[in-house]
Specification:
It is built from 12 helices and 4 strands. With 259 residues, it is mainly α. A 4-stranded mixed sheet has the order 1-3-2-4. Strand 2, helix 2 and strand 3 form a beta-alpha-beta unit. It is globular and about 50 Å long. The relative contact order is 0.13.
């Protein structure tokens, strides 16, 4: 039975003085890469603290510590900073081998990592949906979203070019279809047991269909931007995907989510 533990939130300055596992994140924003990492640490019972810019700390406080790598950025002891989803996952597997979130069989492990990339990697679900969201913010697609200046800030970070939102939408539809088929008749994506892929999919679906406000409290602007109004994407985010998201959160992740 999982023991509930309140994860401590500290300033960047305090985190720099700590030892152990520390993760830099943004307050109030459910970045799926961050929420997935939090979920992995939770399932494995890995003690860690969350580092957020404290009152009076400069805007560049995190970058002065971990470099300009964005969030999440994970620091363990004196080891190198880890910011990619796969590096964070492999660190967690090393720190807490059980419960394993990757299969031990080499072929199944390779499949799990490939499926995880389809969610977390470049042109994966998160990346591609961000392209769609940027298109909305720039006024190229219908719906409400982030302010235009946010879209202009995000665009170069996601390799924006003309037509990128349509490319992103096509990838989102393909990826959701892939996972819907894998969930046909199954509660989990692989081997009918929890793997990292389940955590990734459940957290990243919040970019399309956020959990209800009682489970995921969000500022109105962020909830609006995170809620897709594209009928094709919403149809592809079908009952299998939605049920999986609800099941993974209810069984394995934090509810309500604390940002």
């Amino acid at each position: 039975m999982m023991v509930e533990k309140m994860v401590e939130v500290v300033s960047i300055a305090e985190a720099r003085e700590r030892d152990g596992l520390r993760m830099v994140c943004l307050a109030g924003v459910p970045s799926p890469w961050t929420e997935a990492a939090k979920g992995i640490f939770r399932v494995k019972g890995i003690d860690h603290v969350l580092a957020q810019r404290g009152e009076g700390e400069p805007q560049e406080a995190a970058a002065q510590w971990v470099g300009n790598v964005g969030v999440p950025a994970v620091v363990f002891g004196d080891e190198r900073v880890r910011s990619s989803w796969v590096d964070i996952l492999l660190l967690a597997e090393r720190l807490a081998p059980a419960p394993a979130l990757l299969p031990s069989d080499p072929e199944q492990r390779a499949l799990a990592l490939g499926l995880a990339h389809e969610v977390c990697g470049e042109l994966g679900l998160g990346w591609s949906q961000r392209l769609v969201m940027i298109g909305v913010a720039l006024g190229l697609r219908g719906g409400e979203g982030f302010p235009r200046q946010v879209g202009e800030y995000l665009a170069p970070r996601y390799g924006w070019q003309d037509g990128a939102d349509e490319i992103g939408k096509a990838r989102v539809l393909d990826i959701l279809g892939l996972f819907s088929r894998r969930l046909d008749g199954h509660e989990y994506i692989m081997e009918d047991r929890l793997t990292a892929v389940d955590i990734y999919l459940a957290t990243f679906v919040n970019l399309i269909r956020p959990l209800p406000p009682a489970q995921l409290p969000l500022a109105d602007m962020i909830r609006t931007a995170y809620t897709s109004t594209d009928p094709d994407i919403m149809a592809a985010c079908d009952d299998r995907i939605r049920s999986h998201q609800e099941r993974i959160y209810q069984r394995h992740l934090e509810l309500p989510v604390r940002l």
